[in-house]
Amino acid sequence: MSTAPPRPETTVADIWVDPRCPWAWITSRWMLEVEQVRPLETRFHIMSLSVLNQGREVPEKYRQGMIDGWACVRVCVVAQQRYGNGVLRPLYNAMGRLIHHEKAGLGHDMILAALEEAGLPADLIEAAEDTSWDEPLRAEHHEGMDPVGSEVGTPVIHVPGPDGKPLAFFGPVLTPAPRGEAAGTLWDGVLAVASTDGFFELKRGRDRDPVFD
């Protein structure tokens, strides 16, 4: 009597994202695709480009976004604090779809629509302009970002390394998101590179804008 081979253990990958970043949105779509072809569970966390760039010289075309970007990440953090980390996945998915596919902007209308789509109470919108939530937001941000340094943005991914210690890295930055086995093959390669002792950077200039599909 033959027995089925043991199922591979599921890897938990933690990803830090800002809902308004199109590149993080595409990477997160790739991660969800990897879940379909590899034993992977993606756990979402919030970083903030507004926190990251506070006190820095930012090009004028990005300055308004740095101001407007506080609201949605505050709401994400209060949702996480009140209802647990699991709510970030549907809330981020809703915000990302509205921002990047529906071009709904970063205002209260988008946030309210995302809360409704995620099945969360509308009164969470009260956190949007409440700076008292900035302290837990910064804590969440630094948990993800400190292991990779302050010179990178989002996405940042943490995964267990071969020795069980966490590996943290920025990226991958890609467009469009690979599908099917191509997504899994890229994941295998990313893990191989990230787990190589002493490896720090692999990069080339972007030659296209984000592609959402």
List the SSEs and their pairings.
Elements: E1 11-17, H1 22-37, E2 40-46, H2 49-52, H3 60-68, H4 70-83, H5 88-101, H6 108-117, H7 134-145, E3 156-160, E4 166-170, H8 180-194
Parallel strand pairs: 1-2
Antiparallel strand pairs: 1-3, 3-4
Helix pairs in contact: 1-8, 4-5, 5-6
Number of strands: 4
Radius of gyration computed on alpha carbons: 18 Å
- H/E topology pattern: EHEHHHHHHEEH
Give the low-pLDDT segments. Answer: none
The number of helical segments is 8
Fourth CATH level, the homologous superfamily: Glutaredoxin
End-to-end gap: 46 Å
Biggest sheet features: 4 strands, mixed
Kindly report the CATH topology. Glutaredoxin
How many separate structural domains? 1
Protein name: Disulfide bond formation protein DsbA
InterPro entries: Rv2466c-like (IPR053977), Thioredoxin-like_sf (IPR036249)
Pfam families: Rv2466c-like
Organism: Streptomyces marianii
